[in-house]
Amino acid sequence: MTDRLRPFDVVRFRNGLDDHGVAAGARGVVLDVHESPSLAYEVEVTDDDGRTVFFGAVDPDYVERETPDS
User: What gap in Å lies between CA 35 and CA 49, rounded to an integer?
Assistant: First the structure.
């Protein structure tokens, strides 16, 4: 990932987090950016009813900013 994300960016997971029930292609929202000890994004993923299904820090390689055409 070359473009740094910011809080409230909508992201799409490039890779799934099988242990956490997040499939590749799932959408989430960046809630925080961690700089140390390494860059990571705190992301929340919700289901269709708005219930949180995942909340945690992910490596930048796992997510990309969602664009209008994706």
Answer: 32
